[in-house]
């Protein structure tokens, strides 16, 4: 049974250490094809670096947020790792695969402000988020801006599902806890976010 925090389903330690290590290897292959980049937003440079796998990649620049079918350096996005697809089908119970697996990399001082995931066409599909590496302080708010929030430390191997009424809740990462995990040789935190886009 997952934890339920403001409708977000949290599966603590869904991936054991060997599964996390195998996934990090798969992500190394993704980054070799599609290197991390630092997106710009209207508010400035993001502190999180990112890339994507799948049919689309999430992208942002001075023109706003959107999905793109190619990497900013040119070329298709690599395929979503098989283990991530298997986890998606297992936890969501869906036959439909996600169109995008966003790969977020948080260095020691990176954060992500409160936001909704709403660049997709149909919000009835869930969003699946996988944490790897250092702990991240995940803040969960409401569908509307403002109001009460609750925070939970997400550890390496934890998976969160934004599903049903929690699909559009505001959420963000206030900070990570540098040095809290030995999974990533260079430290930091990786978060994978899988979404159906079309
Ligand atoms: O890093 C996280 O756990 C959340 C990432 C996120 O919310 C996003 O990429 O939209
Ligand atoms: Fe998000």
UniProtKB/TrEMBL annotation:
The Fe2OG dioxygenase domain is annotated at 97-198
One cellular-component annotation, GO: cytoplasm
Cofactor(s) this protein requires: Fe(2+)
| UniProt: substrate binding residues | 58, 65-67, 119, 145
**A GO molecular-function annotation:** broad specificity oxidative DNA demethylase activity
The annotation note on the cofactor reads: Binds 1 Fe(2+) ion per subunit.
Sorted UniProt keywords? Dioxygenase, Iron, Metal-binding, Oxidoreductase
Q: Read off the InterPro entries from this record.
A: Alkb, AlkB-like, AlkB-like_sf, Oxoglu/Fe-dep_dioxygenase_dom
**Does the UniProt entry include the keyword Metal-binding?**
yes
Q: Does the keyword Amino-acid biosynthesis apply?
A: no
**Biological-process GO terms, alphabetical:** oxidative RNA demethylation
Residues given in the record as 2-oxoglutarate binding sites: 104-106, 189-195
Record-annotated residues binding Fe cation? 115, 117, 171
**Protein name as catalogued:** Alpha-ketoglutarate-dependent dioxygenase AlkB
- Tell me the organism's taxonomic lineage: Bacteria, Pseudomonadati, Pseudomonadota, Alphaproteobacteria, Rhodobacterales
């Amino acid at each position: 049974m997952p934890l339920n925090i403001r409708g977000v389903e949290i599966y603590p330690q869904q991936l054991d250490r060997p599964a996390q290590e195998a996934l990090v290897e798969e992500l190394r292959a993704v980054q070799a094809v599609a290197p991390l980049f630092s997106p710009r937003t209207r508010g400035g440079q993001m502190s999180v670096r990112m890339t994507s796998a799948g049919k689309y990649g999430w992208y942002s620049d001075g023109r706003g947020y959107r999905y793109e079918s190619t990497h900013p350096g040119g070329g298709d996005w690599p395929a979503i790792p098989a283990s991530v697809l298997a986890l998606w089908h297992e936890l969501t119970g869906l036959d439909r695969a996600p169109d995008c697996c966003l790969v977020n990399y948080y260095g020691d001082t990176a954060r992500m402000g409160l936001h909704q995931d709403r660049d997709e066409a149909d919000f009835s599909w869930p969003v699946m988020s996988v944490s790897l590496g250092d702990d991240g302080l995940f803040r969960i708010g409401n569908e509307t801006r403002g109001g009460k929030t609750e925070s939970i430390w997400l550890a390496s191997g934890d998976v969160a599902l934004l599903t049903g009424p929690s699909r559009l809740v505001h959420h963000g990462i206030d900070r990570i806890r540098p040095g809290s995990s030995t999974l990533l040789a260079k430290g930091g935190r990786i978060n994978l976010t899988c979404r159906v886009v079309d």
